[in-house]
Amino acid sequence: MTKAKVFQLALESNQIKRSDLSNFINAVTQGNDLMLRNVQRAAELLKTFRQVANDQASEQLRAFDLAQMLTEVIDTLAPSLKRYPHQLMLDIPYGIRMHSLPGALGQVTINLINNAYLHAFEGRENGALRISAKLVEQEVHLFFIDDGVGIPEENLKQLFQPFFTTKTGKGGTGLGMGIVENLVNKTLNGTISVSSEVGVGSCFEVHLPLNAPDAPLPDQNSGQT
Ligand SMILES: Nc1ncnc2c1ncn2[C@@H]1O[C@H](COP(=O)(O)OP(=O)(O)OP(=O)(O)O)[C@@H](O)[C@H]1O
Ligand SMILES: [Mg+2]
């Protein structure tokens, strides 16, 4: 029986004591506080979802704080990442201001996180992925470092090739890294490189200009015969 029901029954049978009333008011106040806090959290989360979805759909250049934008992206992934026991660390100080395409950078981040969880930490109980950044003049250098299975030399060479996957028939299409490379090079005007050691882990290093040019770089294949 709920507290409200117990209280109602006591009220109806004229058995209410002053202490019952005061206990009931305390419980109601606590319940209201809890409800309010959760509604506020839900509203914050919705705002974050909307911002991330909007960035991905509109592809507009805007000013943003790198750590804040990546925190929002990771928050939207949290429900699916929670299913895994791995540790994701975002080690980027607030205050790195960029003027770029947050939707594209978010997409790159999501692909690299998903790859670490699906490939690097496959069958592991305690993978760790650390995302860090440093400023180098007018560039930001981002590092995605996992302590997973690593990538053998012969696969490293093909990593960015469309349809290269070690998960054929198990859900992989092999398009993720090609998309990442394209977004970094063409959309964000940056570069990406990867180093890896089998049994130790992988490091994806992304260099981006703090200020992306107004127009994305033209496709290298277009306009040429
Ligand atoms: N962090 C990583 N650790 C180990 N292997 C990786 C990592 N990231 C990528 N790989 C390897 O690179 C391959 C290609 O990655 P890519 O993201 O292009 O395709 P996919 O993840 O297999 O499929 P998709 O992303 O299209 O669903 C993967 O199949 C996997 O073998
Ligand atoms: Mg992938």
Automatic annotation (TrEMBL):
SUPFAM superfamilies for the chain: ATPase domain of HSP90 chaperone/DNA topoisomerase II/histidine kinase
Keyword Transferase: yes
Residue ranges occupied by any Histidine kinase domain in the UniProt entry: 33-212
Reaction(s) catalysed (UniProt annotation): ATP + protein L-histidine = ADP + protein N-phospho-L-histidine
Keyword Transferase: yes
First-level EC class: transferase
InterPro entries per record: HATPase_C_sf, HATPase_dom, His_kinase_dom, Sig_transdc_His_kin-like_C
Protein name: histidine kinase
Enzyme Commission identifier(s): 2.7.13.3
Molecular function terms, GO-annotated: protein histidine kinase activity
The entry's keywords: Kinase, Transferase
SMART domains attached to this UniProt entry: HATPase_c
Gene3D superfamilies: Histidine kinase-like ATPase, C-terminal domain (3.30.565.10)
Domain of life: Bacteria
